[in-house]
User: Fold these one by one.
Assistant:
Number 1:
Amino acid sequence: MLAEKIQELLQQVQQLHAKNAEELEALRIKYLSKKGLLNDLMTEFRDVPNEEKRTIGMKLNELKTQAQEKINELRNSLMQQDDATDVPDLTRTPYPLPLGTRHPINIVKERLIDIFSHMGFTMADGPEVEDDWHVFSSMNFAEDHPARDMQDTFFVEQHPDIVLRTHTSSVQARVMEKTEPPIRVICPGRVYRNEAISSRAHCFFHQLEGLYIDEKVSFADLMQVMLSFSRELFGAQTQIRMRPSYFPFTEPSAEMDISCHICGGTGHTEDGHTCALCKGTGWVEILGCGMVDPNVLELNGIDSTKYMGYAFGMGLERIANLLYRVRDLRMFSENDVRFLEEFTSAG
Ligand code: PHE
């Protein structure tokens, strides 16, 4: 009786099949678990007369091994099927690619290029390692001007002096010496000054300068261009003001402020605190500018009785600070990806 049951189960076991992991698990439970069919047979085995125990026991063991092997075999073939179906699903939307971010200085630079090119300025470029003439002499710096001093300028060679340019005005000189006016250029670029590195100063930074030369150019033209550019960059409510200043290459010269874009020029926040950016003054300085000194025109081969012009120059780190409130200048050159990732959606 038991022998027949064993025989029957043996046949069943050999024909088992499972389409997936769930079916396989159901089979394992049905045959091999504690409450499974094989265990039932074990219980019946206890009542087998002693003289039959040996043969029946062997058959029972045989069934157990076969069932175990069959289940293993089914499991293996299911796993192989899985591998085979593991081809990529070509209809699936791709993972979003981790895009890099643009550097904040580049974001600012590109916005400025965009604004000024819409006003008709073209781009000009020049070397970072420059001669004294293009950086200083052609820009009307007197021989003993403190900016030539070892403290500010990195000298690459001396007599004749080759320096790392301390401002992008050197590019203006290069444009003037080879271009007939009208001239309307912007020169973005890196500049170097021999300063101790701190949160507020660095030995290199970036500038963007502009130069406009034509037959009739006035300070009012400069102010209008500065106003339009400031409103493009900082918002339509922005006001500008000019404060008298001094640069060797412009006369008159001015330092330009914009109305503080954080407090709207009021000097305080809505809840009455002094504005942290403009320190309560309502204004923040953003650039230097002025009418090109006739000496500079002559030094660069342009007839100062016929032509006149204006120039302006700004630090890109400063503009980036105003737009993004970066408190430590060193962040711009340390390439810390955590800082750079903050600009994923900027600009
Ligand atoms: N070259 C000046 C500087 O480096 C900026 C400037 C440019 C000022 C053009 C006036 C006109 O600070």
Number 2:
Amino acid sequence: MKKPIVIGNWKMYVEKPDAVKAFVMKLKRRPQLLSKTDVVVAPPYTLLPALAQVLGTTKTIRTGAQTVSAFLEAKHTGEVSARMLKVFGIGFVIVGHSERRAAGEKDDMIREQIKRTHEAGMTAVLCIGEVERDPHGAHFGVIERQLLQALKDKTTGKLIVAYEPVWAIGKTAGSAEKPAEIQEMVIFIRKTLADILGREQGVKVPILYGGSVEGSNAKELLTDGGVGGFLVGHASADIDSFIEILTALA
Ligand code: PEP
């Protein structure tokens, strides 16, 4: 069986380089956990140098960015390009997170971000998720549309899909989506990916779940939800709660 992928999205929870160092030093002391999961940490841009420094040659913790510019280079004040991320050894880029969609990022931009990520040889972690759960199933249409729009170019680059129902984000374990419903959605996403990318490529894409994953629900969500791992927000920014999740999955 494949190792579960656990991507920590630190958002703006972690602010200082010292906190990054303390986090990584503690995580490095748990090699048995790191050997059982594929761990990726995605700090804010400002902490990438500190993260790169403390990781050194460590291969068991990989690094991600929380977003990337849709542009290639030059005249774009405030943007950070895929090439610039590569300099810090970034391997994964989260695109289309619901908090960025809510801030105005549209499908066309998300598609460009995926393109830039792939041109730089990194893995795109495409976030999709409905804002509300519809009792008549309209949320499946939302997910299908998000996938169709983001993957219109039929990318052949490395891809992970993170299914994150927006209504389940940022709460506590009891508010996460139920495993049976996650499983139903995973099957739907898998079929949609196969329709868009072709069966051979579609079956290879890991599908993660995100939304109030904590140590207490991680194991059940993994085994009964049929996912390949998790995108974790609040519980990834505190080393003890992150270790609880890794321990539950080990
Ligand atoms: C997220 O925003 O990607 C996320 C999964 O957040 P949380 O774990 O806090 O629900």
